[in-house]
Amino acid sequence: MRWDGLASDGTATAPALFGVDAVTRTFDTPEFRGITFHEIRARTIVNRVPGASRMPFEWTINPYRGCSHACVYCFARKTHSYLDLDTGTGFDSQIVVKVNAPELLRRELASPKWRGEHIAMGTNVDCYQRAEGRYRLMPGILAALRDHANPFSILTKGTLILRDLELLRQAAEVTEVGTSVSVGFLDRELWRTVEPGTPAPDRRLEVCRTLNTNGIPCGVLMAPVIPFLSDTPEQLRATVRAIAAAGATSVTPLVLHLRPGAREWFMHWLGHHHPRLVRRYETMYAGGSYAPKWYQRRITRQVHEYAREFGIGPSRAGASRRITEPASPDPEPAAPEPTQLTLL
Q: What confidence tens digit (pLDDT) does each residue in 216-260 have?
């Protein structure tokens, strides 16, 4: 590990990997105890999604790397190894903060090369994780997107998004704004162990209700559905019913997938909390990172049936960019195969 040597005041020069301006910092407050922040000045902030990705979008913004939500299944864990950081507890507690994200975004959106394409946020790590409460990067990011009428979407497990409700409303007046919250299940005991740093599922559903009440379309990414722990018909139906009661515009079920980095950490958690399931998981995921197609289709079919039962309709398309002369909206991308996004 290359992250030792903090000064007595809680700051230190970060490793050369992050550049000469980077600073490592800790805060002695209950909400950040045990978490180390590496403040860096990024060179770019709008990133292209690799062509081989299953994601239904091409551009993302990630103001943070690592996530204190500490979801044991998070597929972004592997990315911490690129920084020579641990993908287990290190991912949960060593948070990289791109402190210049808002000013950098304004510069990139103003570039003649930028074509105003849709930008997704919260698809790698959650942009409304606890760190955002201190660093407040998202208001500047949302203001830049609003001022350039650039369409965007946000996926989150955090309730902090409601702090920026007025900025979201202002952006929605000039461009397409989409939001989603991630709620895979309602089981509070499962939540406490598998997503220990997140707000409870019912609080996330209240975020969905509040956003829709205020004119910001919000759907629910029902992710992940965890085999043998949250996938019975009774559990699925109860979750969809709660999602419908929250006024979600849509529900999209995604089954747990276990990429390298996340797989090892999840299986360690599984062996500790549910050892009887280890062999079943080894069998189910023997073919790779994804559950078998038949299983994914079964979960999707059941959730869609319950969605029809409770009257959840498809999400509605938003308005196109309106800051300059009208332009024809881009065609919607083809729906991807089921895959789990993080968080979220």
A: 999 999 999 999 999 999 999 999 999 999 999 999 999 999 999
CA 108 to CA 46: how far, in whole Å?
7
d(CA 170, CA 177): 10
When pLDDT is cut at 50, 70 and 90, the band that residue 283 belongs to is: very high
Percent of the chain with pLDDT over 90: 76
Handedness of CA 214, 46, 195, 198 (dihedral sign): negative
* Measured distance CA(30)–CA(174) in Å, rounded: 39
Task: Give CA–CA dist 35/293, Å, rounded.
Answer: 38
* pLDDT for the residue 121: 97
Tell me which DSSP letter residue 290 carries: B
Q: What is the DSSP string of 87-99?
A: SSHHHHHEEEEET
What is the band of 55 on the pLDDT scale with cuts at 50, 70, 90? low
Q: What b/e readout covers 106-116, taking b as 16+ CB neighbours within 10 angstroms?
A: bebbeeeeeeb
Q: What is the pLDDT of residue 53?
A: 52
Cα torsion through 209, 204, 320, 59, rounded to 10:
180
Residue 6 has pLDDT above 80, yes or no: no
**Beta carbons within 8 Å of 191's beta carbon, 6+ residues apart:** 185, 198, 200, 201
Nearest Cα to 344, choosing from 161, 169, 133? 161
For residues 272-291, one letter each, b for 16 or more C-beta atoms within 10 angstroms of the residue's C-beta and e for the rest, the string is eebeebeeebeebbeeeebb
What pairs with residue 24 in β-bridges? Answer: 12, 38
**Full-model pTM:** 0.85
CB-count exposure of residue 3 (10 Å: 0-12, 13-18, 19+): middle
How far is 5 from 67, CA to CA, in rounded Å?
A: 22
Pairing of strands 11-13, 59-61: unpaired
- Which residue, 172, 201, 322, 120, is CA-closest to 164? 172
